[in-house]
Amino acid sequence: MAAERGARRLLGTSSFWLYCLLLLGRRAPGAAAARSGSAPQSPGASIRTFTPFYFLVEPVDTLSVRGSSVILNCSAYSEPSPKIEWKKDGTFLNLVSDDRRQLLPDGSLFISNVVHSKHNKPDEGYYQCVATVESLGTIISRTAKLIVAGLPRFTSQPEPSSVYAGNNAILNCEVNADLVPFVRWEQNRQPLLLDDRVIKLPSGMLVISNATEGDGGLYRCVVESGGPPKYSDEAELKVLPDPEVTSDLVFLKQPSPLVRVIGQDVVLPCVASGLPTPTIKWMKNEEALDTESSERLVLLAGGSLEISDVTEDDAGTYFCIADNGNETIEAQAELTVQAQPEFLKQPTNIYAHESMDIVFECEVTGKPTPTVKWVKNGDMVIPSDYFKIVKEHNLQVLGLVKSDEGFYQCIAENDVGNAQAGAQLIILEHDVAIPTLPPTSLTSATTDHLAPATTGPLPSAPRDVVASLVSTRFIKLTWRTPASDPHGDNLTYSVFYTKEGIARERVENTSHPGEMQVTIQNLMPATVYIFRVMAQNKHGSGESSAPLRVETQPEVQLPGPAPNLRAYAASPTSITVTWETPVSGNGEIQNYKLYYMEKGTDKEQDVDVSSHSYTINGLKKYTEYSFRVVAYNKHGPGVSTPDVAVRTLSDVPSAAPQNLSLEVRNSKSIMIHWQPPAPATQNGQITGYKIRYRKASRKSDVTETLVSGTQLSQLIEGLDRGTEYNFRVAALTINGTGPATDWLSAETFESDLDETRVPEVPSSLHVRPLVTSIVVSWTPPENQNIVVRGYAIGYGIGSPHAQTIKVDYKQRYYTIENLDPSSHYVITLKAFNNVGEGIPLYESAVTRPHTDTSEVDLFVINAPYTPVPDPTPMMPPVGVQASILSHDTIRITWADNSLPKHQKITDSRYYTVRWKTNIPANTKYKNANATTLSYLVTGLKPNTLYEFSVMVTKGRRSSTWSMTAHGTTFELVPTSPPKDVTVVSKEGKPKTIIVNWQPPSEANGKITGYIIYYSTDVNAEIHDWVIEPVVGNRLTHQIQELTLDTPYYFKIQARNSKGMGPMSEAVQFRTPKASGSGGKGSRLPDLGSDYKPPMSGSNSPHGSPTSPLDSNMLLVIIVSVGVITIVVVVIIAVFCTRRTTSHQKKKRAACKSVNGSHKYKGNSKDVKPPDLWIHHERLELKPIDKSPDPNPIMTDTPIPRNSQDITPVDNSMDSNIHQRRNSYRGHESEDSMSTLAGRRGMRPKMMMPFDSQPPQHEETETQRYSVTVKFTQLVHKDWSPESVRNTPSTDTMPASSSQTCCTDHQDPEGATSSSYLASSQEEDSGQSLPTAHVRPSHPLKSFAVPAIPPPGPPTYDPALPSTPLLSQQALNHHIHSVKTASIGTLGRSRPPMPVVVPSAPEVQETTRMLEDSESSYEPDELTKEMAHLEGLMKDLNAITTA
Questions:
Q1: Phi, psi values for residue 213, rounded to 5°
Q2: Which of 1035, 1057, 1060 is nearest to 974 (CA)?
Q3: How far is Cα 1258 from Cα 1188, in angstroms, rounded to an integer?
Q4: How far apart, in whole angstroms, are the C-alpha atoms of residue 749 and residue 956?
Q5: 1049 CB contacts (<8 Å, ≥6 apart)?
Q6: How far is 506 from 354, CA to CA, in rounded Å?
Q7: How many CA atoms within 13 Å lie on the side-chain side of 549?
Q8: Which of 297, 979, 1072, 1383 would be a feasible disulfide site paired with 990, CB 3.0-4.6 Å?
Q9: Residue 1063 phi, psi (nearest 5)
Q10: What is the pLDDT of residues 367-412, one digit of tens each?
């Protein structure tokens, strides 16, 4: 239900019998019983009586004219007297500061001097009277429409004609429908007297029957609507003598279809002409009408039919038959009779207790069928689980709470009118019995055993409350008698129950005393309810039992979704929906419920349907709607169909374009600007605009121009000099042309401005010195025939050439800021155009001293202009106001002091409105032109503060900008979902996850909460997802008790005061397994709505788990491959080292002769040996490509099958170790970095991810692996074991840090390890995920960042932090689980370490390092290397033996 207004408790009633109840007397404070007929109460208890509070007079629809006065009557009755306020178009009027609208003592609204013009209609609209009694409540009246007759416009005028004597004649005069009552006729410029022979039809047409010689003359019609009368063209009517020959029988005026309301009068026009003179007869539905004997049917002059006091029985088809003896002609028209809403049954006042269910009844009739809405205390009641519309119009309130007390009004409305009736709800305390009233609207479950209470002991709580029967939609409760009354024969019981998490309680009473069971019906399946039982005796209610929590059974016998749901647009306002019977009906289908909702709103409507199709009428034109169908059987509603969206057909626009304005460019062209019609009135895609213009002196000669639908301005050229033109614009859709704007006038210039020479000197220059600023004002040159593009202001102490400022040509004053006090400034002003600057005008001023505070800088805003010779600048508009209309529309109004008092614009001036918002700060102004004193600014952002100012332009003169007005647009529902949704597992609690997110980028208001939806089925209907509400603007939330090893999908929706925004995309998160890896789950990014979860839950590519036997086999294979790898590495290392050493010694002199550049066999630019800066110990196998291998062991455990699958690393390892020693000697210890001999205390371990991902490249027939050996030094104790890079086990293979770092590096000949790694990245680069850069955890700086090393000794930052990879990825990257095994620890769990392969130095530096390493590498060092490798082999042999 809508929020209650302010701090009031609002109430309402109009029930007659309760008013009589009050007349019996008000209850005095402390009385024992209410005089309204309530039963006696216990001492101290009292019953509040219903308060008569209703309208004596309500406003009615009123027609007024411009300049007149209007009274909208309203009077309400209550004690004390109510306060009366008025709403216009749903907004409260501020009558305190309004000098035209005032509140009369009886509550009526008086409007003096009604204002109405083409573009300013402040008084026309819908008015509503609001009556308020402090501490009692508020009621609202019916809505009344005030129509102000527009300016007179003739759509047809009398034309010269002739008539034979004795025959009939008509003279046309059609004006706006609201001005017809103000039309009269003149003959020879004298008022024409009407009689039975000469009449005026309701359209304004003049009918003359049985014409005589005196009827000849000049005729014209006159419209008198408050202002000066407006006359039509004069037309001469000639009366010819009877030629005594026959002429054809024709209709001069035929009847047309009419719609009237019961009680109105109607005239069906019908006039025929011919010789002999015809007679007219009327028929209705094939039955002749007797106009002579009927009091309500009258035949008017010429044959028109008048029906007085129309009733519903008068509706039908009427035939006008003209007969002159020679021939007969006929015409027909349909009369439709409508009826205003009337109440057949009004709501009645109700007493009730908390937790009861009540129903306010309301029956209405009318034609068209009225719609009913309910209002509580002046605010709309929105249907929900506890406020329901039942039996079409009745309001049911379930589980009353204290705040439900108040006045409820039933408001019925149709196209003809509206009506309201109300009733009051009073909620009594539980110890006060409900008075005996006439048949009330309490439901049967709450009307039993409301006996008066007396003083005495109360029963204790009922014992052993249990749910003896639990079904899908009902629960049977049983209990034992209270301990205080073991027999309990005279006890009655009340069962209070509510949904878990809902504050409202409902109540069910036992049917007779002593009964200790009750069945609660109409529950929801699979829903948790809380029950408690209270016993009552003759003294009152006792203690409540402990709450009992029971969950209903899930529904299993419900219908399935209706298949083949289709919807198609039948017209611009109707859509037809069809479907078929559900396949899984689970019993006979009783009926269907069709739900539909306009796109972009959150208000879903429904209608009950018994067939398989339905047409919904009354929809908005060219608007998209969504539809779904739910089938019902005896068990209740079934599964909803998916939504089907369809758009109603387009139609011609129903409104004209907005904000039409004209700007005279020169003597031969006028620029026309406009805005599209309001979105609700476009009724389709605007395909273009039709511009019509004409000379004001030749209105019949109209020129037409078509422009595209995206164009909102057009330059009309080729016009005549000094000529006034009229313009109007209409919008087009594919269906046709909509209504056009009113004609707007503008006059071209007599002559064009000259820009062949510079402007003349400005006519005046005035300065006003302040303390730190000088206000400069001026007037333009006297010769205004020369173009002025702007003004240049120069100023300085003693000289005007220190600084120069240029301003726009429209500006007339400028404030020079930041000046020195008590200083003499010289100021110059020059006008300029494209030719150059004109003659300067000089002035000097002395700024005031610091101590002078008599005036401040703000004085200049309203400072009067110093009198200067003409031409004077325009005065800026004043009183600029911003009225907020919606979330994207603000109306700007202002006054122009240069206009007469009535503010009527009679010249060609126009106004420029500019606006901007201060967020962001550099936002530019937007401008628009207007020719009236208001402008509708559309397309604004919701909940945003804007500032507005206005300027007036007349001819070549313009004013300065007015003072600014500010306005903040209303809020709108969020239009974007929450951002950056992430899900992580809580440390140590695998069943608890934490959801984090960021606010939506387009919140459109203050976020008041979020709703988290989660489900295990991403394709489930959204109403089947679990909901977790988050109150306030928190950006994190915990969800507990989830199922382990289960994928969940999460969506988040933000809400503000206007409603819910769109949902975010689904994010998947799999909870850890029961014996999982430290509570870390896995999450996939950006799952769309089309995501399908995998069918198998297996981690292996083929869906089969790995057996223990397979694991042992894998371990043996791993150890064997490791031994073979070490042997191959030793052999290649010895061979290549000897060959390289001897070869390089032979070339050393040649290398030095070419500046130390080292030549390889390959191109020198490709020689970039990798810089193996070793961080942590790890032997890592990474699958590059996988082929579908049917062998489950080889697929589940991707390990090389032979030694050829392992990439040798000897050359790159050896050479790079010595490069590091010589190139970066200043930053590392010789003992630790010179040779491998210094690392014998270290034990390398092989980390092999058991990657279970499915094959990535089906076309690859072989599997290749990149093997990288990493070492760490024992001297560095601060390595971080948390710095882990988990290898993903999902369908995408991310590039590791090492792959990322060495992508662009080429390896020297022989360094196959690095080249192999680079090639693997090229193959997988298309599916690589972003990786975090891992900083080294020891104090030596890593060269992992791809950059050119500096020529001197590199510096490092000793404070470089050690950042674990997982912590860096927590918010921006996705964490994956991995199975790893360490051969060194025989399968014990150990996290793999990150690998960083730094970039290589430049080629020249690399060459120098290779030379240095060559000179220092001795045979004894090779011996140490071999000894170290032999130690490794012994370790591996020991592992194999174990």
A1: -60, -30
A2: 1060
A3: 6
A4: 10
A5: 1014, 1015, 1016, 1017, 1018, 1066, 1067, 1068, 1087
A6: 8
A7: 3
A8: 1072
A9: -85, 150
A10: 888 889 899 888 888 887 788 888 888 998 888 888 888 889 999 9
